[in-house]
Amino acid sequence: MAIYLWALFFLVTPALFVFAAYKIDRIAKLGTIVLAYGLGLLIGNIGVLPDDIGVVQNAMTTFTVPVALPLLFFSLNLGSWRTLAKKSVLSLLAAMIAVIVGSFATFLIFGQHVGPEGWKAGGMLVGVYTGGTPNLAAIGNALAVDPSTYVAVHGSDVVVGAVLLLFLVSLAPRIFRKILPAFVAAGNEDEEATEFSPYFTGWSVRELKEMGAALGLALLIFALGGSLTLFLPDLAALPAAMLVITTLGIAASFVPRVRRLRNSFQLGYYLILVFSLAVSSMANIQELAGTAPIMILYVATLLVLVSLLHLAFSALFRVDADTHIITATSFIYSPPFVPVVAAAIGNRKVVVSGVVIGVVGWVVGNYVGFAVAYTLRMLF
């Protein structure tokens, strides 16, 4: 009986986190994923979980991410990439090149120190710094990364990322505006930006039906992608399945009726929280203590290299300071952070381009992350 109660705990607690963040500003600023990781590490290491909890943990970590990905993609308006100004496109390309080059350079320095799963960590970090947490979770899940490695990578990203975010909203505008050209509106940035709130918009009968329809479609896509595991060798099956699920989810977003389904993004985000709680409860703090310091140094070095390369490319391509800052934000932190940073730098006109760049990052993150991971494995 206890195992069923714990299964219910893993499903209900993330929903409570989302509700609390919706009601309490301080919890929203702390972040629901941080709460999920913290609680997961606590319950996983104080001896309260039953011996047979592995069945539940494995089910939660195996099935939540592949179902969440299509749900996150359904609401994306990918046709909006055409609204990007030339400088925004250049900044996007500069950021992507910076992430890839920086990842290879950092792996050359630290690869031998992070253990046999270093190539997986490298791919996960490319995924998160091109797209976001869903990409990191998808790549880690498909590569069967050890839970302690996963938590070390994502925990280090949270710590180092918080410092960089503080820099972006404080000192960065003054520094970058002395180095890069001034912002000039291109005439298309005044459109209303797409909002990516993790909070559910309501519980009317219509909204519940639409959420059920989105979940049904996501499960169908999951089944189609998952069927590959029946025919491919184990090493290739999970990555191939995840890429097929990603592609089908993106394709579905081009159907207007699917894109208008309400709460699909929020439901996907909730499933990412369930995954975060479950995977962190599987991590061993003693193992984590051994890997976290080197991983924090790895992530810090990577972000410094990526930031410097991105700045150099922006200077080369004459990208303006505000577009550079908002591109860095959308790539490293994903679209929900774009309006926050845009407000901090005092330029709401970059919000649309920032959100669209972040959406492009979400879409390509899995592809680029897997490509880099397997290249690292092959070369090093």
Task: Describe the protein.
This protein has 380 residues and is mainly alpha-helical. The protein has helices at residues 2-23, 25-30, 32-45, 54-74, 86-110, 118-130, 133-142, 147-169, 172-179, 205-226, 234-252, 256-259, 264-281, 285-317, 321-333, 338-345, 351-379. The protein has one domain. It contains 17 helices and no strands. Helix 4 packs antiparallel against helix 13 (264-281), helix 5 runs parallel beside helix 17 (351-379) and helix 8 (147-169) crosses helix 14. The protein is globular. The N and C termini lie far apart (47 Å). The relative contact order is 0.21. Mean pLDDT is 88; it is low at 188-193.
Quick synopsis:
This protein has 380 residues and is mainly alpha-helical. The chain has helices at residues 2-23, 25-30, 32-45, 54-74, 86-110, 118-130, 133-142, 147-169, 172-179, 205-226, 234-252, 256-259, 264-281, 285-317, 321-333, 338-345, 351-379.
Q: How is this fold's topology laid out?
A:
Layout: H1 2-23, H2 25-30, H3 32-45, H4 54-74, H5 86-110, H6 118-130, H7 133-142, H8 147-169, H9 172-179, H10 205-226, H11 234-252, H12 256-259, H13 264-281, H14 285-317, H15 321-333, H16 338-345, H17 351-379
Helix pairs in contact: 1-13, 3-13, 4-7, 4-10, 4-11, 4-13, 5-6, 5-14, 5-15, 5-17, 6-7, 6-17, 7-11, 7-17, 8-14, 9-15, 10-11, 11-17, 15-16, 15-17
Poorly predicted sequence stretches spanning 5 or more consecutive residues:
188-193
Element order: H for helix, E for strand: HHHHHHHHHHHHHHHHH
Mean of the pLDDT scores? Answer: 88
Biggest β-sheet description: none
Structural class: mainly alpha
C-alpha termini separation? 47 Å
Number of strands: 0
Gyration radius, to the nearest Å? 20 Å
Number of folding domains?
1
Q: Roughly how much helix do the residues carry, as a percent range?
A: over 70%
What coarse outline follows from CA principal-axis ratios? Answer: globular
Helix count equals 17
